[in-house]
TrEMBL record:
Designated name of the protein: Glycosyl hydrolase
Transmembrane segments: none
Family matches, as Pfam families: Glyco_hydro_1
Organism: Pseudolactococcus hodotermopsidis
Keyword Signal: no
GO biological process: carbohydrate catabolic process
Record: active site: E375
Keywords: Glycosidase, Hydrolase
NCBIfam families for this protein: PRK09593.1 (NF007158)
Cellular component annotations (GO), alphabetically ordered: cytosol
Gene Ontology molecular function: beta-glucosidase activity
Lineage: Bacteria, Bacillati, Bacillota, Bacilli, Lactobacillales
Family as reported in the entry's similarity comment: Belongs to the glycosyl hydrolase 1 family.
Length: 479
């Protein structure tokens, strides 16, 4: 077998995209709750007029209802168990524990909910893998404090992290501090809670916010390891394998600079424990002055680094600054130049399985810590046939090729912990707020307005992935 015996096969979700029950049992509003659904979401979050106001007469807010996992988690986890999941990656909604984010005492109803979810996983011998903050910071912290550019959020996050770590550390071994922390280079609203009205277009604020998040992450690692040195606490980044448009050294140098800023910077600090050598040049390119760094911050970063790197990989990108007329494509945060050697998804994301092998070798060669592919998948339109079946061979093909790439990387010597494909059950898309952009092995009968029965049904990929897990990645055939 290529993959280790205890390889963590599973799936991944986020609280704000599937739980629903956005105002139930004391939960407060999160930034995700204020993000309208539809392809206009990105445009609105980047607009100078956007101010986090929820206008239900003008927009649809699919995150409010999600797929009602809050009330149906037992049913969903039973389906995960039927597939043979070894782990399940999910997040704890900050606003279920601290509705406004700045309270001192936690909301017990929220803690009891996640305890029930964790216990349900453990009933089936499924290891919980918990993301502490996954694009769902309290809306109050974004509106009142201006998001992560404000140093006060370090203390609020520390309080939140300590509460959930202390409550669940005896049951949960695997943790991640922030989801796709580097996404803020392109969309600070998601991870940092900053919009143009609160300074998101000023890179000084983005990098200062990152510093505060780095400090907060290290505080969580410190506290978690004090509770139990065996806890595995990782960082989580988007990784996009990036190619230069051509062999022109100008484009090659530009690609190097882009990779430093997007793929490496956040991981360099969280894994190596210090700001990288290229920081001064990176700040210069982005017009960033020296950051406000408190006494003890750098020592904290150095002494409390993460144990592993979790990362999302959906696509690769191409960088160019010399050619004037090039075809462009959409992507996960990053678009860019069209790669003529690759096909694309229904949403224009360029599909590049070999790029995952390159990513794994690059990250492991750079950091020499275990890696965990915690998001990977194909967002596609699924058709329900007259007999109720969903024949998603395109999804099977995508996943098969990426698992093969992972196996190649393991043969290359990469230490790979596990694989949790994104959206193991259909949920609300983070980028567009759509249900029609489906990733799951499990179909959920809801449309983009969250109308429908909500019934769950198995796609063809359900049994295929069950076979993959049962064979520890040895049988990828599509019967």
């Amino acid at each position: 077998m290529t993959f280790k015996k205890d390889f963590l096969w599973g799936g991944a979700t986020a609280a704000n995209q599937l739980e629903g029950a956005f105002d139930v049992d004391g939960k407060g509003l999160s930034v995700a709750d204020a993000m309208p659904g539809g392809k206009i979401r990105w445009q609105l979050l980047s607009s100078d007029e956007f101010d986090w106001t929820i206008d239900e007469e003008k927009y649809v807010y699919p995150n409010h209802k999600g797929i009602d996992h809050y009330h149906r988690f037992k049913e969903d986890i039973a389906l995960f168990a039927e597939m043979g999941f070894k782990c399940y990656r999910f997040s704890i909604a900050w606003t279920r524990i601290f509705p406004k984010g700045d309270e001192i005492a936690p909301n017990e109803a929220g803690l009891k909910f996640y305890e029930a979810v964790i216990d349900e996983c453990l009933k089936y011998n499924i290891e919980p893998v918990i993301t502490i903050s996954h694009y769902e910071m309290p809306l109050n912290l974004a509106k009142t404090y201006g998001g992560w550019k404000n140093r006060e959020l370090v203390g609020f996050y520390e309080n939140f992290a300590k509460v959930v770590l202390e409550r669940f550390h005896s049951k949960v071994k695997y943790w991640m501090t922030f989801n796709e922390i580097n996404s803020s280079l392109e969309m600070p609203a998601l991870s940092q809670g900053m919009i143009p009205k609160t300074g998101s277009k000023d890179q000084q604020n983005v990098f200062q916010a990152w510093h505060h998040q780095f400090v907060a992450s290290s505080l969580a690692v410190k506290f978690g390891h004090e509770l139990n040195p065996d806890l595995q606490i990782g960082c989580m980044v988007i990784y996009a394998t990036t190619y230069s448009f051509d062999a022109n050294p100008i484009n090659q140098a530009h690609t190097m600079e882009h990779i430093q800023a997007f793929n490496y910077f956040c991981a360099d600090v969280q894994v190596r424990g210090e700001y990288p050598a290229y920081t001064a040049r990176l700040f210069e390119r982005n017009g960033v002055k020296p950051l406000e760094i408190a006494d003890g911050d750098l020592e904290l970063l150095k002494n409390h680094t993460v144990d592993y790197i979790g990362f999302s990989y959906y696509m690769s990108g191409v960088e160019n600054i010399t050619a004037e007329e090039v075809e462009t494509v959409q992507g996960n945060m990053l678009g860019g130049v069209k790669n003529p050697f690759l096909e694309a998804s229904d949403w224009g994301w360029q599909i590049d399985p070999i790029g995952l092998r390159i990513a794994l070798n690059d990250l492991y060669g750079r950091y020499q810590v275990p890696l965990f592919v915690v998001e990977n998948g194909l967002g596609a339109y699924d058709k329900v046939e007259s007999d109720g079946s969903i024949v998603d061979d395109y999804r099977i093909d995508y996943l098969k090729k990426h698992i093969t790439a992972m196996a190649d990387a393991v043969c290359d010597g990469v230490d790979l912990m596990g694989y949790t494909p994104w959206g193991c059950i259909d949920l609300v898309s983070a980028s567009t707020g759509e249900m029609s952009k489906r990733y799951g092995f499990i179909y959920v009968d809801l449309d983009d307005h969250i109308e429908g029965t909500g019934d769950r049904s198995k796609k063809k990929s359900f049994d295929w992935y069950k076979q993959v897990i049962a064979s520890n990645g040895g049988d990828l055939t599509n019967g």
